[in-house]
């Protein structure tokens, strides 16, 4: 039994393989590299029962994660978030079993902690001392925090109007933090120059192969929490798409080792109408997306005008007979409010977008009444105070609350 069954890295475009024992970024052909495991062996050595009594974090799946040596793990207790039933909302949508995988409860308040935990741990194992990344906020915050815990220097570049709290997180964690008056794509160009000039480890989305491995654990957890029965549909708010690609990768790996069987869930990539390159590509049955000019949405984490892994997102959607859906900011903000009212959950605008899409797909009959539907809430609503502006009445000292009867 090995701690990890990591075998090598493989390019999903040209098929080239390479060793996973040194720092790797993109494949020479320009595509992201994916981690591959000795799944045959793992299918024989590993059983679902062996998870009983393991730690309640994503590291419970260490055999299917890339860190070879337990000592290199950098953790803040991430993973194993609740899968909550949403019965009142389900009734409202006309879906008999609607569940929320709630990522608001991970360190830093967004699921980005998963990618950071595994990405930073593997960086430690590979001897990385300095990393850099562009971000829409949450990823930079998470990587800065985990890098601080690991003693790695982090350089972070984010749009000036990214959620303010993510700036504080990154700065407090001691990252070299820079803002740019532009989009994540503009931040990406600045980081690419720094990487080339200063020899930093490029932790940009999918430019290192291990962030996705952390994110895929959302898919494993959903399966474990449903008793290894598969839901019919999974909806995911899609920016760079790593979460969705990761969930699909997890499903394929679990099927390969014999832990799940049958039809895979239909995967739904949800975007905002103000930034919907994947939805447009899906509607046109294309393999890749095009850059979305002047993108804008209140759901900041999914404001990604062109994703490096767009073809992998689209592949996951096509191969599972899924869909790609765009919702307006008005719809997603209304849904955020509705979910707090009906279920007591203050979720992030990105998660609310995924719920708004579930409502739409149920209305259109694409989701059927008896189906089990899992929606990813990727972060905490409290990180976005500006999307929930309220004006409660102000009382003078000693004044009474007005009677409802009068
Ligand atoms: C980054 C982010 C997303 C998008 O995640 P990808 O896996 O890059 O598509 C969604 N929601 C929140 C809150 C995020 O921070
Ligand atoms: Zn390649």
UniProtKB/TrEMBL annotation:
<dbReference type="GO" id="GO:0009097">
    <property type="term" value="P:isoleucine biosynthetic process"/>
</dbReference>
<dbReference type="GO" id="GO:0030170">
    <property type="term" value="F:pyridoxal phosphate binding"/>
</dbReference>
<feature type="domain" description="Tryptophan synthase beta chain-like PALP">
    <location>
        <begin position="74"/>
        <end position="379"/>
    </location>
</feature>
<dbReference type="GO" id="GO:0006567">
    <property type="term" value="P:L-threonine catabolic process"/>
</dbReference>
<protein>
    <submittedName>
        <fullName>Pyridoxal-phosphate dependent enzyme family protein</fullName>
    </submittedName>
</protein>
<dbReference type="GO" id="GO:0006565">
    <property type="term" value="P:L-serine catabolic process"/>
</dbReference>
<dbReference type="Pfam" id="PF00291">
    <property type="entry name" value="PALP"/>
</dbReference>
<dbReference type="InterPro" id="IPR001926">
    <property type="entry name" value="TrpB-like_PALP"/>
</dbReference>
<dbReference type="GO" id="GO:0004794">
    <property type="term" value="F:threonine deaminase activity"/>
</dbReference>
<dbReference type="InterPro" id="IPR050147">
    <property type="entry name" value="Ser/Thr_Dehydratase"/>
</dbReference>
<dbReference type="GO" id="GO:0003941">
    <property type="term" value="F:L-serine ammonia-lyase activity"/>
</dbReference>
<dbReference type="InterPro" id="IPR036052">
    <property type="entry name" value="TrpB-like_PALP_sf"/>
</dbReference>
<dbReference type="InterPro" id="IPR000634">
    <property type="entry name" value="Ser/Thr_deHydtase_PyrdxlP-BS"/>
</dbReference>
<keyword id="KW-0663">Pyridoxal phosphate</keyword>
<keyword id="KW-0456">Lyase</keyword>
């Amino acid at each position: 039994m090995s701690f990890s069954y990591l075998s090598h890295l493989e390019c999903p475009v040209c098929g080239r393989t390479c060793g996973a024992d040194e720092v790797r970024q993109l494949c020479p052909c320009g595509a992201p590299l994916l981690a591959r495991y000795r799944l045959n062996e793992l299918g024989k050595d590993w059983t679902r029962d062996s998870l009983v009594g393991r730690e309640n974090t994503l590291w419970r799946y260490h055999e299917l994660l890339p860190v070879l040596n337990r000592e290199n793990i950098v953790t803040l207790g991430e993973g194993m978030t609740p899968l909550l039933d949403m019965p009142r909302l389900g009734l409202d949508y006309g879906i008999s079993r609607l569940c929320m995988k709630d990522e608001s409860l991970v360190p830093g308040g967004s699921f980005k902690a998963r990618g950071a935990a595994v990405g930073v741990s593997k960086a430690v194992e590979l001897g990385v001392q300095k990393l850099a990344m562009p971000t829409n906020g949450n990823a930079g915050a998470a990587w800065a925090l985990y890098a601080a815990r690991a003693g790695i220097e982090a350089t972070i570049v984010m749009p000036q109007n990214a959620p303010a709290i993510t700036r504080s997180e990154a700065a407090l964690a001691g990252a070299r933090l820079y803002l740019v008056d532009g989009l994540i794509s503009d931040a990406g160009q600045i980081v690419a120059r720094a990487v080339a000039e200063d020899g930093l480890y490029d932790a940009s989305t999918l430019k290192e192969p291990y962030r996705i491995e952390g994110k895929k654990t959302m898919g494993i957890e959903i399966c474990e929490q449903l008793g290894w029965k598969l839901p019919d549909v999974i909806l995911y708010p899609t920016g760079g798409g790593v979460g969705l690609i990761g969930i699909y990768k997890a499903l394929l790996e679990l099927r390969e080792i014999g832990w799940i069987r049958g039809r895979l869930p239909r995967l739904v990539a949800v975007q905002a109408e103000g930034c919907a390159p994947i939805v447009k590509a899906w509607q046109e049955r294309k393999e890749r997306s095009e850059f979305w000019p002047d993108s804008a949405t209140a759901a900041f984490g999914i404001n990604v005008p062109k994703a490096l892994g767009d073809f992998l997102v689209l592949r996951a959607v096509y191969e599972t007979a899924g869909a790609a859906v765009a919702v307006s900011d008005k719809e997603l903000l209304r849904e955020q409010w509705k979910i707090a009212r009906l279920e007591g959950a203050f979720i992030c605008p990105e998660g609310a977008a995924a719920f708004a899409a579930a409502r739409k797909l149920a209305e259109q009959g694409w989701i059927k009444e008896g189906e089990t539907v899992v929606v990813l809430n990727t972060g905490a609503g409290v990180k976005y105070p500006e999307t929930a502006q309220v004006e409660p009445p102000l009382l003078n000292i000693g004044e009474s609350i007005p009677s409802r009867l009068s």
